[in-house]
Amino acid sequence: MEQHHRGGTTPVPGEFVHRADPADIIPTGWAQVEENRYSVSARWPASHPFFSPVAGDRHDPVLVAETIRQATMLVLHAELGVPVEDQFVMWELNYTADPGELAVDGPSSEIVAEISFPELDRRAGKVRGLRTSVLMTRDGRRVATGDSTARCTPGPAYRRMRGERMAALGRPVPLIPGVDPSLVGREDPKDVVLGPGDRPDRWQLRINTAHPTLFRRPNDHVPGMLLLEAARQAAMLATDSTAYLPAAMELSFSRYVELDSPCWIGAEVLSAPADPATTVRITGHQDGSRVFLCTLTSPSREPVAAGSCPTARSAG
C-alpha cells in the first residue's frame, strides 16, 4: 500500500489548520493511506493556555473536537485541493471518547487520527461538501471516534452570501460581564464565555473577540469552537460541577450565530441523579430562532485516578 508522507519534522503550516499560533497547531504530520483515507499524527499539549487538563489529570475531551476540525482542514487543503481562502464551516460534529484513555500521563503524547470521507461533494472538480469519519488511537488503543459534516465555500461566494454581515469582520463587540470563573472551571476571566442570564437555566453568550484561541483571526460570525465551549460551561453550571467531563458530544448548527445580537444559551439536565452518566442538552437561541443544539455526556466520576483533584481545572 503506497503511502505519501508529508509534514513529519516539517511543521504543519498554520494556514492549513486556520491557526496562527504554533502552540495551537495540533497535527504534526499526515500521510495518504488510500483514496479518500488519510492518517494524521497529532500531539495533545500537556499544558495549554486554553485546552488545559481537566478533572485533575485528563486531557480536555474538547481536544477531540478540535483535532477532528484541524485534521479535516489539513487534509482538505494539503491533499484535496481546497484553497486556504475558502470558508470552511462545520454544520455537525460528534465524538465519543474513552475517559480512561485521556490520561495526561499516558504512555505516549502522540495521537493518530485515521480520517476517511464517506461523502465528498465535488463540483467542477472542487470539494464543496463532505462528511468525515475519524478514529483516534494512542499507542494502538482507541481514544475516540467521531464524525462531522462541513461545507467549503469560495471566498467571493461567501462574501456575496453574507452580504452586509461582512461589515462585522474585525469590528469590536461589547464585552458583557461574565459569570464567576470558578463556576465554569476557569481561572482566567477572559476564558469565561457565559454572562448572567434572565433565568437560572439560561445565560447570555459572552463574546470576547480579543481571545487568542477562540478568535484566532477576525470573523464575521461566532466561531463554532466558542459555542462548544459555551455548551461545556453551561453543562457545568447546570450540574453545579466543574468536574463535568464531556466525553461524548453531539453538536449541530442551524445557522450562523451573529456577533451583533444577544445569543442565549439554555441547558437542561436529561439524566436522573442515579444514572451512571450525566447528559445535558444545551440550546442556543438568537433573535427568537434556535441556532445550535448540543448534547454532552459526562461519565460518573469513579474513573478519575486516585489522588487527583476532581474539581480542579488549570487555565494554564
UniProtKB/TrEMBL annotation:
Pfam families: AfsA (PF03756). It comes from the Bacteria. Residues 16-152, 183-269 form the A-factor biosynthesis hotdog domain. This is ScbA/BarX family gamma-butyrolactone biosynthesis protein.
